[in-house]
Amino acid sequence: MDFQKLYQEKLTTPQQAVSLIRSGDWVDYGWCVCTPRTLDKALAARYEELTDVKVRGGVLFEKPAIMQVPDVAEHFTWNSWHMSGVERKMIAEGSCFYIPLRYSEMPGHYRRYLKPVQVAMFQVAPMDEFGYFNFGPSISHMRALCEVADAVIVEVNQNMPRCLGGFEESIHISDVTYVVEGENPPMWTLGASPATPVDEAVAKLIVSEVPNGACLQLGIGGMPNAVGSMIAQSDLKDLGVHTEMYVDGFVDMALAGKITGAHKSIDRGRQTYAFAAGSQKLYDYLNNNPACMGAPVDYTNDVRVVAQLDNFISINNAVDVDLFGQVNAESSGVRHISGAGGQLDFVLGAYLSKGGKSFICCSSTMKGKDGTLTSRIRPTLREGSIVTDTRSNLHYLVTEYGIVNLKGLATWQRAEAIIGIAHPDFREELIRQAEAMGIWRKSNKR
Fold first, then answer.
1. What pLDDT, on a 0 to 100 scale, did the predictor assign at position 338?
2. Are 168 and 296 in contact (CB under 8 A)?
């Protein structure tokens, strides 16, 4: 087969490619840094002739052109698998909705429940000599999406890194409907906020629990990144990586010689991940790097896979936690913030791992716009808040005031342990609330 000839036969303009889309269609924009740009603009230009086009995607870096057209709700609705700050604002505008899920199940959702998708369109790396377009740093669920789409349109970006994988990291030209050569914009980058003293205090507590040879999963956010930076400067060695999202912290650790993957029972020597986003340094590191392995999320986040990795260390954030040990990582009351992602998968998998530990970390307080300090440790979660991890799943909880293991503790023991790492200014009130709820014994320390 002459792949270049086939490429030329399928090469077309963005306008011609998006002409496939009709009113009422389900259109998929892929995921994170592979979200289309040129095709998005071309589809937005057709808005007046389209109504009720439903679009799926997630982890946006900028507001799509289709979501900026007049009377957007009449023409396009954005349905997100996981929220970024961009999507949070779109929810407030009434044109965006969240799709609740365990991220590990997403490929199965496409293959079992979401077919057909009328059109899938997304950015890819340039075609290789064997006729394959690499999905770049967004392997995730992309192959499953392509399998169920009636039409697949790829937007080639010369700046997309070629991310090596184990399987399902690419699509062949023979399975593509149209090829569009995009404008080759630079990769979207994810800036990391400087670690705060609270981030560093939490990170120090967690790093002390990490043994040599451990396998790491880091969530997104200041605290997990602080852990990565601290490990990069530590004496730890022979660490492994098996994670949902690959972030700059892993690059820092790898360049510092901390990551070898020598003790991984599976994918030995390779850093395994479902998708990646970060600085240009991260994309340069991933490009054609055989030390890194992109894989579908139903592999990376599968509890049964994670459980095979000894000394698995999972580190994730929370919005708030209550005295029963329920973890909310998704909303502030009914105001949506993020998504379930793979947090519960890794909490469960880490506990099943021999020597494994899962850490939920958060600052003890948050400061409102008016400067008011409120506790992130609450008697009960705020009405409307989402339970991401149930009380029976929580393993270690960490704030800047300490670290507690909640496995096997009765409700009164849990309440005491959790209050013990709350901000001191709120502890007496939390004790009063615990007493009122019947989860405080008189013999507890005060």
1. 87
2. yes
Q: Domain 3-181 sits in which CATH superfamily?
A: Glutaconate Coenzyme A-transferase (3.40.1080.10)
Give me the residues of the chain with pLDDT under 70, please.
192, 445-446
Instruction: List the one residue out of 116, 190, 123, 109 whose CA is nearest residue 153.
Output: 123
Q: What is the pTM of this model?
A: 0.95
3-181 and 197-437 have identical folds: yes
48 is known as an active-site residue: no
**Phi/psi at 380 (5° precision):** -135, 160
Buried b (16+ CB within 10 A) or exposed e, 21-38: beeebbbbbbbbbbbbbb
Contact (CB, 8 A) for 244 and 275: yes
Identify how many contiguous H helices and E strands the chain contains and give both numbers: 16, 24
**pLDDT score at 309:** 98
Q: What would the pLDDT profile of 6-46 be if each residue is shown by its tens digit?
A: 999 999 999 999 999 999 999 999 999 999 999 999 999 99
**Total number of residues shown for the chain:** 446
List the structure tokens of 3: 């792949």
Q: Which of 87, 244, 330, 416 is catalytic?
A: 244
Q: Residues 159-181: pLDDT tens digits?
A: 999 999 989 999 999 999 999 99
Q: Where are the domains of the chain?
A: 3-181, 197-437
Residues 6+ apart with CB under 8 A from 169: 134, 135, 139, 143, 163, 294, 295
CA neighbor of 233 nearest in space, from 204, 199, 265? 204
Q: What is the 3-state secondary structure (H, E, C) of 196-262?
A: CHHHHHHHHHHHCCCCCCCEEEECCCHHHHHHHHHHHCCCCCCEEEEEEEECHHHHHHHHCCCECCC
Neighbouring residues of 139: CB distance < 8 A, sequence distance ≥ 6: 163, 165, 168, 169, 274, 275, 294, 295, 296, 297
Closest by alpha carbon to 141, among 173, 106, 175? 106
Read off φ and ψ for residue 402, nearest 5 degrees. Answer: 150, 180
Whose tokens are 């600085």? That residue is 279
Beta strand pairing status for 335-336 and 331-332?
A: antiparallel
Maximal C-alpha separation, the chain: 80
Closest CA to 213 of 274, 269, 165: 269
- Nearest-angstrom CA–CA distance, 424 and 399: 12
Q: Write out the H or E segment, with its range, that includes residue 320.
A: strand 320-322
Give the pLDDT of residue 446. Answer: 57
For domain 197-437, which architecture applies?
3-Layer(aba) Sandwich (3.40)
